[in-house]
Amino acid sequence: MSYDIRDITLAERGRQRIAWAARHMPVLNQIKDEFAREQPFQGRRIAASLHITTETAALLSALHAGGAEVALCASNPLSTQDDVCAALAESGIAVYACYSEDLTTYQQHIEQTLALDPHLVMDDGADLIVEVHNRSQGSSVVAGIEETTSGVTRARALAEQKLLRFPVIAVNDTPTKRFFDNRYGTGQNTIDGILRATNIFLAGATFVVAGYGWCGRGIALRARGMGARVIVCEINATRALEAVMEGFQVLSMTEAAPLGDIFITATGMSGVISEQHLRQMKDGAILGNSGHFDIEVDVAALRKLATSTTEIRDHLSEFRLSNGRTLYLLAEGRLVGQVAAEASPAAVMDLSFADQALSTRYLLQPDLQLPPAVYDVPPDIDERVAQLKLQALGIKLDTLNESQLAYQHAWQLGTVAAS
């Protein structure tokens, strides 16, 4: 076994928690059994940079069961669960990660993971994909998978500049991922992270959500469900109009800054909350980020404005400003639902990781010839994942009869039947 983790003796605890997550992932369990029978990854090497959680362990276990040699590093230094690392290492997966590792160690672990010389890289944030492209052309990588919005943006930028060397499937963009994991999973884990870090009362609070994509929609929905007054900030006119139609107040961040009690960014864009906004915020305002990278809140500007900084609770830092006001930052500006909570629940990650597992098999078909580009998940994979989930929930669908099937391809029937 090859690994660099915090403590291998935590393995038993990790196994117990992984088993609990797997119990709520029936789709991935079925795919794992299929992989174990068919061995589609025999002789294949897969390197992954992911949030190392119990749900991620279930995904890697499915790939490993299918014959893959797997190496894993973290996609965020603060989301790693050390007991999960230990359990995976004992199971034969090479793990290079530990909670709260510094950036030097984080980079070292990326390099150790890529030392596997993988055929496929599985990413959350595109750090592996970018590192492969920073190296010479001598890599064995033939394909990649990207799970999150920020990573897809980086992969598309490589493609736009004609630098992308291999096909990448954007799992983030497929309906069974973004409609469910992004909306319901991120909505729940973000609120969970805020409450664990602060124990504040949301009912009656003014809650500002920056970004009304699928993650922002979920966060706004859950915050309203907890009784908060929700303000949405957007740059996209269509999404802003949708937020208005859903009954949310839509303001610019400049307008919202003096009003909010809690601010959460979910945009995948840098500098969403800037020094100008920080100067406008009321005493006691709480800032957090639900995007992948810690770039959405200008933490450097916050530190510059502060006369003192104190961590007053786990994942909650107090910044006393020179004007006498105090602002609070969640999880160092990193994605709060992963750092202060436990990420999206297993039942919804069942969909996202099933998409990733089946997309991996698709990309590693021996005869597949895809030019370098960013691709959607094949529709038949997305549909199969949805069908398997419904079956697991005991839900049956209607089907079209022969007459209805024929009608789909007919033109004669209308208000007046054609003669």
Automatic annotation (TrEMBL):
<dbReference type="GO" id="GO:0033353">
    <property type="term" value="P:S-adenosylmethionine cycle"/>
</dbReference>
<comment type="pathway">
    <text>Amino-acid biosynthesis; L-homocysteine biosynthesis; L-homocysteine from S-adenosyl-L-homocysteine: step 1/1.</text>
</comment>
<dbReference type="GO" id="GO:0006730">
    <property type="term" value="P:one-carbon metabolic process"/>
</dbReference>
<feature type="binding site">
    <location>
        <position position="181"/>
    </location>
    <ligand>
        <name>substrate</name>
    </ligand>
</feature>
<feature type="binding site">
    <location>
        <position position="147"/>
    </location>
    <ligand>
        <name>substrate</name>
    </ligand>
</feature>
<feature type="binding site">
    <location>
        <begin position="290"/>
        <end position="292"/>
    </location>
    <ligand>
        <name>NAD(+)</name>
    </ligand>
</feature>
<keyword id="KW-0554">One-carbon metabolism</keyword>
<dbReference type="Pfam" id="PF00670">
    <property type="entry name" value="AdoHcyase_NAD"/>
</dbReference>
<protein>
    <recommendedName>
        <fullName>Adenosylhomocysteinase</fullName>
        <ecNumber>3.13.2.1</ecNumber>
    </recommendedName>
</protein>
<feature type="domain" description="S-adenosyl-L-homocysteine hydrolase NAD binding">
    <location>
        <begin position="182"/>
        <end position="343"/>
    </location>
</feature>
<feature type="binding site">
    <location>
        <position position="53"/>
    </location>
    <ligand>
        <name>substrate</name>
    </ligand>
</feature>
<keyword id="KW-0378">Hydrolase</keyword>
<feature type="binding site">
    <location>
        <position position="234"/>
    </location>
    <ligand>
        <name>NAD(+)</name>
    </ligand>
</feature>
<dbReference type="GO" id="GO:0005829">
    <property type="term" value="C:cytosol"/>
</dbReference>
<comment type="similarity">
    <text>Belongs to the adenosylhomocysteinase family.</text>
</comment>
<dbReference type="Pfam" id="PF05221">
    <property type="entry name" value="AdoHcyase"/>
</dbReference>
<feature type="binding site">
    <location>
        <begin position="213"/>
        <end position="218"/>
    </location>
    <ligand>
        <name>NAD(+)</name>
    </ligand>
</feature>
<dbReference type="GO" id="GO:0004013">
    <property type="term" value="F:adenosylhomocysteinase activity"/>
</dbReference>
<dbReference type="InterPro" id="IPR000043">
    <property type="entry name" value="Adenosylhomocysteinase-like"/>
</dbReference>
<feature type="binding site">
    <location>
        <position position="124"/>
    </location>
    <ligand>
        <name>substrate</name>
    </ligand>
</feature>
<feature type="binding site">
    <location>
        <position position="177"/>
    </location>
    <ligand>
        <name>substrate</name>
    </ligand>
</feature>
<dbReference type="InterPro" id="IPR036291">
    <property type="entry name" value="NAD(P)-bd_dom_sf"/>
</dbReference>
<dbReference type="InterPro" id="IPR042172">
    <property type="entry name" value="Adenosylhomocyst_ase-like_sf"/>
</dbReference>
<keyword id="KW-0520">NAD</keyword>
<dbReference type="InterPro" id="IPR015878">
    <property type="entry name" value="Ado_hCys_hydrolase_NAD-bd"/>
</dbReference>
